Amino acid sequence: MIELRTPAEIEQMRPAGRFVAEVLAETAAAAKVGVNLLELDRIAHDLIRSRGAESCYIDYHPSFGASPFGKVICTSVNDAVLHGLPHDYRLRDGDLLSLDFAASVDGWVADSAVSIVVGSARDEDLRLIDTTRRALTAGIAAARPGGKVGDISAAIAAVAHAEGYSVNTQFGGHGVGRTMHGDPHIPNDGRAGRGFPLRPGLVIAIEPWFLETTDKIFTDPDGWTLRSADGSRGAHSEHTIAITDSGPLILSAP
User: Fold this and answer.
1) Is the pTM of this model over 0.90?
2) What is the per-residue DSSP string for 126-151?
């Protein structure tokens, strides 16, 4: 079911967005060469406890997950692009790291993701990350009252295709509210003018993610982490936004 939020409810969602942005900023700053992914998860977990927030991930067990996630942040490294399950791995110079985090504050959820390079960066990685960020900006700009979900999808895909990247539509954006994942689904490719109408009060997460040389993925033996089929690297950018009468409002902005 798709729910529209009142202006007062959207205001109540702002603390969740600010908290998610804070956690991503702190974990990204801590992601140095030699730091263990489990340490990044611990930092996020400590921030959840100190804020009195609730994790959206730790007990999360959708049909595509092998078991409850068990951690509080997704840490996807190099050829992993989504749902990276934190494990005993120390970051290395040049790793491309995607951090995806969602939490509930006072009953409202926000969801966001960033990609960074640890240490020395390859030009190819910086280009890939920049493309996801520009695609996110384009998708947000298209999230205006009177439009359609397809407008967002088409805007994201146009940025990706212009850079020569193909687009996977198995996983994409989604509704956000009292829970982390809801309708409508926001694919990262589609036709403008098609799909669910964009109305004031709709709160969604928009999340472009691209792989360097493929759009095919497979699930790691851990039952969660999604990796590129050809070993190429991936990047991921995401914000939670509300559609208002005056246009899109980014709730998870730093």
Assistant:
1) yes
2) HHHHHHHHHHHHHHHHT--TT-BHHH
Contact 113, 206 (CB under 8 A): no
Task: Give the C-alpha distances (Å, rounded to integers) separating 117 from 75, 123, 170.
Answer: 13, 10, 25
- CB distance 209 to 235 below 8 Å: yes
Cβ–Cβ under 8 Å, residues 229 and 216 = yes
Which residue carries 């529209």 as its tokens?
4
Measured distance CA(131)–CA(79) in Å, rounded: 17
Q: Order of strands across the sheet with 203-206?
A: 182-186, 173-175, 203-206, 239-244, 247-250
> Given a cut of 90, is residue 62 above it in pLDDT?
no
Report phi then psi at 249, rounded to 5.
-120, 120
pLDDT in tens, 1-24: 899 999 999 999 999 999 999 999
Q: 186-224: buried (b, 16+ CB within 10 Å) or exposed (e) per residue?
A: bbbbbebeebbebebbbbbbbbbbbbbebbebeebeeeb
Q: In a 3-state reduction of DSSP, which class is residue 47? A: helix
Q: Are 156 and 139 in contact (CB under 8 A)?
A: yes
Q: Which residue has the tokens 């611990």?
A: 42
pLDDT digits (tens, 9 = 90+) for 139-169: 999 999 999 999 999 999 999 999 999 999 9
